[in-house]
Amino acid sequence: MSTPRLNATQVAALPQAVARPGYDRDAQRIGIVHLGLGAFHRAHQAVYTDDAMAAGDRDWAIASASLRSSGVCDALAPQDGLYTVTDRSAEGEAVRLIGAVREVSAVAKEPTRLAALLAAADTRVVTLTVTEKGYWRRPGGGTDLSGIAADGNSIYHHLARAVTARHAGGLGPLTLVSCDNLPDNGRVLHGGVAAFLDHQGLAAERDWFEREWRAPNTMVDRIVPAVTDADLDRVEAMLGLRDAAAVITEPYRQWVIEDDFAADRPRWDAGGATFVADVAPYETAKLRMLNGAHSALAYLGLERGHDYVHQAIADPLIRPLVETLMRAEAATGFTPARGQDLDAYADALLARFANPSLAHRLSQIASDGSQKVGPRWLGSLADHARRGTDMPATLAALGAWLRFIRREHPASPDPRSAELAALWQSAGEAGLIDALFGERGLLASDWHPSASQRAVLARHIGATALSGDTPFSSNASTAT
What we know:
The protein has 480 residues and is of the alpha/beta class. It has helices spanning 39-43, 45-54, 71-76, 113-118, 145-151, 155-169, 185-199, 203-212, 229-239, 280-303, 309-313, 318-329, 342-353, 362-366, 369-387, 392-404, 417-437, 451-462, and strands at residues 30-35, 61-66, 83-89, 92-98, 101-106, 125-128, 175-178, 218-221, 247-249, 254-258, 274-276.
C-alpha cells in the first residue's frame, strides 16, 4: 500500500514535532501573486509570509504561478498547496508545515488564471523568483525587447497585461518585489516593465505605472539545494506522509527589502526580514561574497572532482582561494552600511558552506554562468580597477569558468551556451578574453582587463585545473 499524500485532510496525522501554521489558513484571502514556483520561493518568501500571518497579518495568502514547467504545480496541487520545509544542519533537523501558498497554477495549463489573479482587487504585491535570465538583460545593460517579444511568455508580458487591466478597471497599483540575485533587481524589473509597455505603445499605462507602481530593491539569502529522491524518501519516513514538494534547506535565512511599497505590505519583519532605506550594501555583499564564492566553488570544485559545496570548501587548494576572494577582494571593493560586519559575514559564509548535512550540488550553482559572472565578479573587478588594486583570486575563479565553458555540461545548462561555444571556436585561447570582456565583447561591462590581467587570464585559460602554484595572494595587490 502506498503512503498517503500530504494534503489539508491529513494535517492532523503529522507527527507532533512538525510545526504547523499559526493561523486559520482557510480564513486568509490571496494578497500576493508569486511568479516562479521553485524551491527557493517555497523556502524563503513563503516562509516569511507564513510568519507574518502567524503574527496576526490577514489576507496575505500566496497564489503561485509557474511560467514554464508544470512539475512543481503538479506536485503541490494534490497537496492543497501544503508542503514542508526541513532546516538541516550538523545539529539535526527541524520540520515545519507551510500554509502560506493557497493556490498554484501553471500558465501552460491555465493560461487565463494568472491574468485574473494579477487583476484581482485583493492582490497588492507580486513577488518573483525567475532567475537572472528571466529579466532579459542585455550584457551591457538595458532590456532585450526583441527577445522578450519573441518569447511571448516572459514576466513582462504578464505584468504588462496586469498594468493594462488594473488601469482600465480603476484598481490600485501593485508593488513588484524581485527576489532574484541581480544588482538593483527592483530597478531592473521596473525599467523592464516600463520599456515593454512603451514597446507596446501603451503610453497612458506606462505613465500610470511609472507614477504609481513600486518595485523595491531586495537582497535574499538562503541556500536551497535541489531536492533528491532520497530526500523525499527521508521526509516521507519522518512524516508518515508523502510530500512531493518538500524543501530541504539550511537554518539561516535573510531578506533585506527597500521600504518602498505602493500600498500596504506584509509584516515580513515578523519573520526576521529587514526593511531599510538602501539595500545596495547588503545586496553587493551577498552577490560578491556569497554568490561570488559559490560560483568559484562550483567551477574550481567540479574540475577537481567534487560534487558538493561542502566537499569543495574542504579542499586545501580551493578554501584559501575562496577565503581570499571573499575577504581581501569582494569585501573591500565597496562601502558597507553602518554596522555591517563583513568579516563576520565571511565567517558565517564559510561555516554555511562547510555544512556537511546540506548536499548542495556544484552543478546546480554552475548553471547559467553567463548570467552570473557579471554581477558576481565583473562589477567587483571594475571597482578594484578604479581603486588601482587587483583581484588574483577572482581572476583564478574567472579562469576556471572560462575553462568550464569550453566543454559541454548537460547538468549545468547556460542560455548562451551556443554563443560561448562559437566564441571558443572562432576566437580561440588567444582572442577569447577580448571576445568576451572587450568593449564590444559578449559580456562587455565596466571592467576592461589590464595588460597584466590579460596575461593572468591567459595562463588560467591554458591550465587544466587549479594547482598549488595558481597565482593568488592573501592580500589585494597593486595592479600594473
